[in-house]
């Protein structure tokens, strides 16, 4: 098999990162050419522990949090493998998942990107497939769309006995062919967090490459542990990324409709959560937390969508 470079971006996830590295480095797979860790100014001792336990890992230490796309691109620029695996630090491979992804890519040269099946710790499935953002997916309930049109909107609710071609895979574990990257380019660094992998898949497809979900390559994913540290700011980045994608790929009219539609949804959600909290005397913590997030997002929109982890204002 051709060589594989694994690229991991870390930000204060030491306990998960060490488990992630252990899940594949200790197997000493012959095709594993190198592991590149890009650390975004972690303060939890991640780098020191990696240096102590995994001295073979190539380290890039950033002085500040550059976001996912910029950090991945740093790794891609020095990687030497024929295949590049983007891997979240809060993942661990189950059984021969990594080998299965490699084998699939070797047998299907027309595939530019392949992703495995993400699973919870109890073995239940997570969504591992993403549709390209559209007005339907962003303004309506995604679960309803998957139920009404399962072929058009594939998801974890169905079992797939064989690999299937999809719009996009989730970036927690995605293997990319070097030849495809050389043709399409690196990740778009306008995205700070979220949808950068979907944008990449979109560009790959437009260039003629295929994107596949490989269900038998199962990967434990402890889901968004970095983002959980600041849920409000993470939500802001998700909104920002949707607006970037639409502005870049969908044209002004759809971009405008999305902005207006999401703002109206936020107003409705704020009003409904406010009413629910008042009626229950603000006793239900989950509802209070939801109200705080909706109010924060609404305020972010009223300020012109200018604040976020990426610290770059969005154009109207």
Descriptive terms for the model:
2 domains, disordered C terminus, Spore Coat Polysaccharide Biosynthesis Protein SpsA, Chain A, alpha/beta, 11 helices, 316 residues, globular, two-stranded antiparallel ribbon, 19% strand, 44% helix, 9-stranded mixed β-sheet
Describe this structure in words.
This protein has 316 residues and is of the alpha/beta class. The protein has 2 domains: 4-225, Alpha-Beta Complex (Spore Coat Polysaccharide Biosynthesis Protein SpsA, Chain A); 229-302, no CATH class. The protein contains 11 helices and 11 strands. The strands form 2 sheets. Strands 1, 2, 3, 4, 5, 6, 8, 10 and 11 form a 9-stranded mixed beta sheet that branches. Strands 7-9 form a two-stranded antiparallel ribbon. The longest helix is centred in the last third of the chain and has 29 residues, at 251-279. The chain is globular and about 60 Å long. The termini are far apart. The relative contact order is 0.13. Residues 309-316 have low confidence and may be disordered.
List the total number of helices: 11
**N- and C-termini, Cα separation:** 48 Å
Strand content: 15-25%
- Total strand segments: 11
> Helicity, in percent?
40-55%
Based on the coordinates given, report the CATH architecture of the largest domain. Answer: Alpha-Beta Complex
Indicate the overall shape. globular
How is the topology of this model organized?
Layout: E1 4-10, H1 14-25, E2 32-40, H2 46-53, E3 58-62, H3 68-78, E4 83-87, E5 91-93, H4 97-107, E6 111-119, E7 129-130, H5 135-139, H6 142-148, E8 164-165, E9 168-169, E10 173-177, H7 178-184, H8 196-206, E11 210-221, H9 231-249, H10 251-279, H11 285-302
Parallel strand pairs: 1-2, 1-4, 2-3, 6-11
Antiparallel strand pairs: 4-10, 5-11, 6-10, 7-9, 8-11
């Amino acid at each position: 098999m051709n060589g594989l470079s694994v690229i991991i971006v870390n930000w204060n996830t030491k306990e998960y990162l060490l488990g992630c590295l252990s899940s594949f480095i200790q197997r000493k797979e012959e095709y594993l050419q190198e592991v590149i860790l890009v650390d975004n100014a972690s303060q939890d001792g991640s780098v020191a522990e990696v240096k102590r336990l995994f001295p073979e890992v190539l380290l890039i230490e950033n002085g500040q949090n550059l976001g996912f796309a910029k950090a991945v691109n740093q790794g891609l620029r020095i990687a030497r493998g024929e295949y590049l695996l983007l891997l979240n630090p809060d993942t661990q491979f189950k059984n021969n998942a990594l080998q299965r992804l490699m084998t699939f890519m070797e047998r299907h040269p027309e595939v530019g990107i392949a992703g495995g099946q993400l699973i919870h710790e109890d073995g239940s499935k997570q969504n591992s497939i993403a549709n390209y953002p559209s007005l339907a997916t962003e303004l309506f309930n995604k679960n309803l769309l998957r139920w009404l049109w399962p072929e058009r909107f594939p998801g974890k609710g169905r079992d797939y006995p064989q690999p299937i071609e999809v719009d996009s895979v989730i970036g927690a574990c995605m293997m990319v062919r070097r030849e495809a990257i050389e043709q399409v380019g690196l990740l778009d660094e306008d995205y700070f967090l979220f949808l950068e992998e979907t944008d990449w898949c979109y560009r790959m497809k437009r260039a003629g490459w295929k994107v596949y979900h490989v269900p038998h390559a199962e990967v434990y994913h402890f889901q968004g542990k970095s983002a959980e540290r600041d849920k409000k700011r993470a939500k802001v980045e998700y909104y920002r990324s949707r607006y970037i994608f639409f502005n870049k790929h969908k044209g002004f009219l759809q971009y405008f409709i999305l902005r207006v539609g999401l703002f109206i949804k936020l107003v409705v959600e704020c009003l409904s959560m406010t009413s629910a909290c008042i009626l229950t005397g603000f006793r239900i913590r989950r509802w209070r937390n939801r109200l705080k997030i909706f109010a924060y997002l609404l305020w972010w929109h009223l300020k012109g969508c200018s604040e976020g982890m990426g610290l770059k204002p969005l154009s109207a």
